[in-house]
């Protein structure tokens, strides 16, 4: 009887130890990114002088702004290490603004529609549409965007893939792209 109670106590202690372990967190870098330009202005360097036909997916900088005639947004794609239904939490961490913003900015993060795109071909005419699911984050002058919880967006991935837009309702900001060696990353925790 004593042996049975000792074994039971040991099993309970082992179970408590297993359940007390924190869920593993995985760092996931962006797999692709591009600046999407939508403009009614003329861009002589673009096909047919149409800004919407230029591709900006291989540069070292991404930008976001909203002007009178032009809107730029960063489109960033990720591939999760497992199905989105297994995501417990998912935080987006962006590289620092470059250059630092001397005024406060609002950063908008929205899910893009599930549509395949490549850095070499995506432009203002064929980019995925924006879905409404997202968040706004106010960033004070001379600060960077903190890690932002985008768990709901990560959970809605299809075939482990999803894309987000980073945009601004006004003031322009820029940050490094994955080609700079400093991509946006996710900190993803899985249900255990």
Give your account of this protein's structure.
This is Carbohydrate-binding module family 96 domain-containing protein. Pfam families: CBM96. InterPro entries: CBM96 (IPR055372). The protein has 192 residues and is mainly β. It has a single domain, classed as Sandwich (Jelly Rolls), CATH 2.60.120. Helices cover 12% and strands 38% of the residues. It has two helices and eleven strands; from the N terminus they run αββββββββαβββ. Strands 2, 3, 4, 6, 7, 9 and 10 form a seven-stranded antiparallel β-sheet that branches. Strand 3 and strand 4 form a beta hairpin. The chain is globular. About 6% of the residues have low confidence.
* Fold-level CATH name: Jelly Rolls
What are the segments in which pLDDT stays under 50 over at least 5 consecutive residues? 6-17
Number of domains: 1
Mean pLDDT: 88
CATH class equals Mainly Beta
Signal peptide: 1-20
InterPro entries: CBM96 (IPR055372)
Subcellular location: Secreted
Protein name: Carbohydrate-binding module family 96 domain-containing protein
Secondary structure elements and their pairing?
Elements: H1 2-20, E1 25-29, E2 32-39, E3 61-66, E4 70-79, E5 87-93, E6 105-112, E7 130-139, E8 148-149, H2 151-155, E9 161-167, E10 173-176, E11 185-190
Antiparallel strand pairs: 1-11, 2-4, 3-4, 3-10, 4-9, 5-8, 5-11, 6-7, 6-9
Summarize the structure.
It contains 2 helices and 11 strands, in the order αββββββββαβββ. It has one domain (23-190): Jelly Rolls. Strand 3 and strand 4 form a beta hairpin.
């Amino acid at each position: 009887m004593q042996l049975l109670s000792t074994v039971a106590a040991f099993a309970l202690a082992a179970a408590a130890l297993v359940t007390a372990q924190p869920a593993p967190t995985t760092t996931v870098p962006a797999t692709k990114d591009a600046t999407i330009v939508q403009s009614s202005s003329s861009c002589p360097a673009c096909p047919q002088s149409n800004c919407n036909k230029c591709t900006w997916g291989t540069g070292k900088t991404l930008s976001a702004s909203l002007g009178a005639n032009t809107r730029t947004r960063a489109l960033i794609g990720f591939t999760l290490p497992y199905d989105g239904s297994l995501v417990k939490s998912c935080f987006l961490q962006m590289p620092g603004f470059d250059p630092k913003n001397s005024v406060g900015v609002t950063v908008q993060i929205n899910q893009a529609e599930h549509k395949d795109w490549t850095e070499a071909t995506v432009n203002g005419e064929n980019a995925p549409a924006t879905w409404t699911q997202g968040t706004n984050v106010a960033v004070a002058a001379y600060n960077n965007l903190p890690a932002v919880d985008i768990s709901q967006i990560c959970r809605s991935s299809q075939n482990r893939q999803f894309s987000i837009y980073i945009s601004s309702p006004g003031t322009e900001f820029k940050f490094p792209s994955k080609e700079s060696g400093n991509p946006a990353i996710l900190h993803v925790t899985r249900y255990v």
